[in-house]
Amino acid sequence: MLRRPAVAAVLLCLLAAVFAARTRASGPQFWRLEGAKAFLEGDPTGVSVDSQGRLRLGSEPRQVYDPVAPNAWSVARDASGVLYVGTGNDGRVMKVQGTSGSVFFDSEELEVHAVAVGPDGRVYAGTSPDGAVYAIDPSGKATRFFDPQDKYIWALAFDPAGNLYVATGAQARVYKVAKDGKATTLLDSTDTHILSLAFDRSGQLYAGSAPEGILYRVGGDGHVFVVLDSQYREIRALDVAEDGTVYAAAVDAHASETPRPAAPASPPAPAAAPVAEVTVSESFAVVPPSGAAPIAIGSAAAQGTEAAAAPKGAVLRVRPNGDTDTFWTSTEDVPHSIACVPGGVLVGTGNKGKLYRVSSPDEWALVATVAAEQITALGRTSGAAAVLVTSNPARVYALEGTLAGRGTLVTKVKDAETAARWGQLSWEGSFPAGTSVEVQTRSGNTEHPDATWSDWSAPLTRAAGQPIQSERARFMQLRVQLTGKDGATPTVEAVVAAYLQRNLPPEVKAITVHPPGEVFQKPISVSGDPEILGLEPDPLSDRAQSARAAAGTPPAITFSRRMTQRGMRTFSWQADDPNDDPLVYDVLYRAVGDERWRPLRRSLSEPVLAWDTTTVPNGRYLIRVVASDAPGNPPAYALSSSKDSTSFVVDNTPPSISASLDPARPGTIRATARDDSSPIRRLEYSVDAGRWEEVHPVDGIADSPEEQYEIALPPRSAGGAPRIVILRASDIMGNTATVRIDVP
User: Fold this and answer.
1) What are the pLDDT digits (tens) for 268-281?
2) Overall pTM surpassing 0.85 (yes/no)
3) 656-743 has which fold?
C-alpha cells in the first residue's frame, strides 16, 4: 500500500526543462529572411530597404571625382556650383567642377576637417592638428586668417554679416572672427571638443560637443544655453530645417573606430562674451569615421524589442518649441553626416557606406550605398539631390534620385548548426511586368565564406520555389539580385530557404539514484488515489504520445510530494538531443557480476522510473538508460545513446538477531546482528516498553554485515519483577528485525 506522507509536501527541483514553442529540428527547418533587420544584416548594393521591411532597387550614386586620398572630411559649394572638398591625410582642399578636380590648396597640416565659402568669395579651410584657418582666394593663394592656440578646427560657419565662427578641439571653444581676423571667444565649454555648428533662421547658433554629447545654443546676445545633454558622447553633425527644427547626428564613443588625437582637458569655462546678432548660413561640418555594431535600424518606437539593443548612433530632433526626441537610431550604422531635404533628412553613415532617408520616427529607408566605408559629409548642388563625400577611400558622388537598373543583396551567413541537406527556396513580394528577381546560393563548412566554399549556384528564377543546388554543408548564403525596367522595381518582402539538419544522437547526461524507499507522488492522479511517479506506464494512449512527440515538446517532470515506500527505488535522468527531437527511453538492469542486461521498462516518455525491487533477489545492481530520438525521425534515421548508473544495493530482507544473557556477568546481554546484503546500521534496545536506546558495536563502528554488541542493563531494585528486553536491528536499507529476551 502507498503511504501518505505525515508532513507537508516539499516542492523539489524540475528534472527536465520545459521547451516552449520549439520547432522540431528532425523535420524540415525554414530560414525565413524577412523584415528590415534581416535584410540590413546583409551586404546591399544598389538596393533599398525601408522601415516596412521591403527590399527594392535603390538610388545609384554617380561618382564624380576621386581625390586620390584615404579620407575626405568636408565639402562646401560656392555660388557657381563649384565644390570644395577637404581631405586627409594629405591636408588638401580639392576644387571639383563637374567630373574634374584639382588641388586648390595644399596645407602643411594633415587634415582639413572644415571648409566653408565666405560672402567675400574666398574659401576658408580649417586644418588639424595644428589648428589654423586659412583664407584662399579664387586663384588658390592662401593666407593664415586665424590661428588660435587650439589644436583642432572641427567646423566653420558664416553669418550674413561675414563673421566667421570657428569650432575647435582640445579646448572646446567657439570663436567669432570678424572680417579683419580679430577674434572673440563666444563659447568656452568644459567639454573637450566642439565638433559641429549650424545657424537657425533666427540667427541662433547651435554647437555640438564631445565627449559629453551636449548641444549648446548661443543667442544673438551671446547667452549660452544647453538645449540637450544627450545620452551620446558626440554631437557629430548638425543641420537646421526650414521650419527651424534642429537635427543632430549623435554618436556613442564606443562606436568610434578612428579615435581623435588625445587632447588636454579644458579649464572651467568663463562667462561667454556677448556677440552681435547673426543670421542663418548653410554649412557642413564633418569628423573622422566610426565603427559599427550589431544591427537595429529605425526609431525606438518602430523597433519594438530591437530598441533594447544599445544604439551606436542616432539622429536627435529639437523642435522650435524646445521639445526633443529621437528621430532615428541604429545599433549598426554610425551617423557621420546629416542634411535636411524636403520631407525629412538624409543621414550618411559608416562603416558600410549607407545613406538613409528618414521621413519620420516610424518611416525611413536605406536609399543608397557607396563603395566606401563612411559617408563623412553631405552637400547640395543644383544638379543633384545631394553630394556625398566619403572616406576609406575618399570619393565624391552625386545622388541624382534615379533608380539603379540592377541591385543585389548578399545575405548574412545562415548557420544550420549541423551539416544540412538543402530543400526548396522561394520568395514573396510583387514583381511588375518586365522586372525580375534571381537568387543564387552557396554553401560551405567554415563560418565565413572562403575559397573552400562552393561557387555561386545557377540563378533560381521561380518565386514559387525551386530546389537549392548547393552542396550539403553547415553554412549557406544567398545572393538576391533585383532587375528593374522603365523605372519600375520588383519588391521582395521575404525569402524562404528550407533545409534538413543531419540527425545527431541524443545524450543521457546524468542518472540520479534516489535513496532507498524514496518515491514521489504524481502531481495529477488518474484514479483519484495517490499514485507514484514513474511506477506505472505512461497513462497517455499511443495516439496521445504520438501527438506529443510530433509537437516536439518533451514533458516537464516535477518532483513534488516526497513519500516512503518500502522496497522501492526511484531513478531519474537528464537527457538532451542536439536536434531538439522528442525522446523515448528504455531502461535495463543487471546485477554486478552478471554480464547480461535485462529489460526493466520500454518506451518511457518521461525521464523517471520507480522500480519495485522486491521482484529481484538482494544484491548490487546497475541500471542503463537508453535514449532514442525515434519519435521524431524515420526508423532508418533514428539514433540512440545510453548511460549506466552507479551501482546500488537492493536489500529487502531484514537482518537476523541472536542474543543471550552473559552468565558470567549478570545484567549483561550479548547480541549479534547479521545481514546477507548490506551493513548493519544500528542496534537499539528497550526495557519494559521504555524508550529505545542505541548501542554501539563492540568494535566501535557499524560498518559490516555482522556486528557484535554488549548491553549492560541498568540495575533494578531488590525484589523487582522480571524484565522484558526488546532488541531492534536495522540495516542501511531500512529493513528492521526484533527479538525478545526475558531477564529473570
Assistant:
1) 333 333 332 222 22
2) no
3) Immunoglobulin-like (2.60.40)
